[in-house]
Write a structure and sequence with these properties.
By secondary structure, this protein is α/β, with parallel strands linked by helices. It is built from five helices and seven strands; from the N terminus they run αβαβαβαβαβββ. It starts with 25 loop residues before the first helix and ends with a strand.
């Protein structure tokens, strides 16, 4: 795992072998951020990273100048890894939350410039994630939501969908 751009550009991190997350590949992450640069100025934005896993997306946003990131993850191993990296880099504006993403979404009450979700591809409720993000008004008026998913799911019919990108086996659906 590496940080692609910004303050921590080129830094490599090695998640523990017992991590259960499927980290977004560096290639897919770099390609996604190239697309997002056309829609988002990362300087001083607020970010919500759902199913944060290794924290790769949240850390990338911090490196690019995000004001703050909230990373929500259920697994303690993944959260400890994110906290370790934040400690090594002296990052104090990435807050981790251990808990169920759907419960967090329902109780959050905050609005974000950028929301990213990378649920386990086999999660039965994966197709509900976009609806929950919009139902609970997590995005600011010009905000963007990105869902990482397998090629088995399609979201083009969703009323907030505006773009799909595929990089190998990694698919991103973008919503606004």
């Amino acid at each position: 795992m590496r940080i692609i751009s910004g303050k921590y550009k080129g830094r490599h991190f090695y998640p523990p072998a017992n991590i259960t997350a499927r980290p977004t590949t560096d290639f897919a992450k770099e390609s996604l951020f190239n697309v997002l640069n056309n829609h988002i100025d990362f300087e001083d934005i607020t970010v919500l990273d759902l199913f944060a896993g290794t924290g790769s997306i949240g850390l990338e946003c911090i490196s690019r100048g995000a004001r703050n990131v909230i990373a929500v993850e259920m697994a303690t191993t993944q959260l400890n890894f994110i906290r370790k990296i934040c400690g090594e880099l002296h990052i104090d504006n990435l807050m981790t939350v251990r808990g169920d993403v759907f419960k967090y979404i329902a109780s959050c009450g905050l609005h974000f410039d950028f929301v990213f979700a990378d649920p386990p591809y086999q999660l039965p409720e994966l197709s509900l994630v976009p609806d929950k993000v919009f139902e609970h008004d997590l995005l600011k008026p010009d905000g963007i939501f990105v869902l990482e998913h397998s090629g088995k799911q399609q979201f083009a019919e969703h009323p907030h969908f505006f773009e799909h990108r595929r990089y190998g086996s990694v698919n991103f659906s973008l919503f606004a």
